[in-house]
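Hey all, sorry for the wall of text incoming. These are the two entities for the joint prediction.
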Amino acid sequence: MIKKKALLFILGVFLVLAAAGCGSADKNGDPEKKTFTYAMSGQYKPFNFFNEKNELTGFDVEIGKALADKMGMEAKPIATPWQGLISGLKAEKYNAILGSMTITPERQKEVDFSDPYYISGPNVFVRGDSAIKGIQDIKKGTPVGVLISSVYDQEARKYTDSVKNYTSDVTALQDLDKGRVDAVITDRFVGKIAAGEQKLNLNSVGDLIFVENIGIAFRKGDPLRDQVNKALKEIKEDGTYLAISKKYFDTDISK
Amino acid sequence: MIFFDYLIDSIPFFIRAAAITVELTAAALVLGMVIGLCFAMMKISGRRGLKYAADTYITVIRGTPLIVQLFAIYFGLATLVDFGSFWSAAIALAIHNGAYIAEIFRGGIESIDRGQMEAARSLGMNYSLAMRRIILPQAFRRIVPPLGNQFIIGLKDSSLAAFVTLGELFGVSMRLASTHYAELSFYTIAGLYYLALVIMFTVLVNWLEKRLRIES
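and here's what came out:
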């Protein structure tokens, strides 16, 4: 038998917890400054990932901060699942997608991209003992792991009908190591760094499959795109870009 | 209308995926029933050790989310044993639903009048023979509705297999939804396929219920 007072107390606790959860947007920082919210998957080391302190960080995050600083805005990077990024942008949940998204004609119908903020490309990654020496060795039944809804997924489907979709490229590489797939197509840096850090016996084989121009996505017609392009040019000119690029890759990846 | 274009054009993808969903659910539920019957018998056996083990299993499995169990089996155990995405999902689903099925079986068995067991024993049957020939057949008839219910839940739970790379209904809908930038359309279509499967299954269960009723 629960006494009435106890029941009211419990209800009160729930209501307080609920109210605390619904707290309004963060009040830290200068209230006059506009925020530049940019989204990424957070599953893509070294471009965007969570560090040991569980902070969202990486090349994309730092470029975003540099751009926000140049535009006099407050940088707010957020992580959200990859396959929902574009619909979240359209739903105005954030200002931009700054998460290593490749510029493609299909995507350009849905969003406006900035100028490329880096250039990269995918490699085929395989286990050390693999017979696969390049993308031409991927046959119809070869199991290949790729990120769901990515340009790598589209590429893989040209060669094999046994495509396994992952919500994170890093998970795909781990499964490659365990033998669940025979190849993974992912960015050349992402694969190399994941294999190195986790001491996986994986190599990239063959040449870069194609060149990707990576852009920042905005809603169609959003003037923020031109502002960001201007800021991007400025951080390239004043060396900020080079510093961040060298920090992660020892080289300038805008070329 | 564009929704119908998506609906028609995606039929080959969704039919194949629906087949995987059905296979997965069937495998999981067959295994789940074996597990469920096992633990139900353990729980009613009267032997303290068996009852403890069954209670622990049921409590732990019902107390943890399916997705946690699924990820533990597919990702967590991967260094020790790899079942692949289909069987990892089937095993996780079987273990998970098995705990609920155990309670369904137990409820059915315990609802059979004690007199039945007494009569069977007095006719010279041992416990196991009495169970098999007298108690369980009667109990089974009673549990068809709640068991059918749990099967439907199992079918919908199979959607989590998408997160361990299985190309079943939900996984396919996620992919098509973002390829075509048409989330609402494709998640609705996936919902329609699940609904169709559940309705077909419900018809089957109702038929089974009717058939069992005539025999009594």
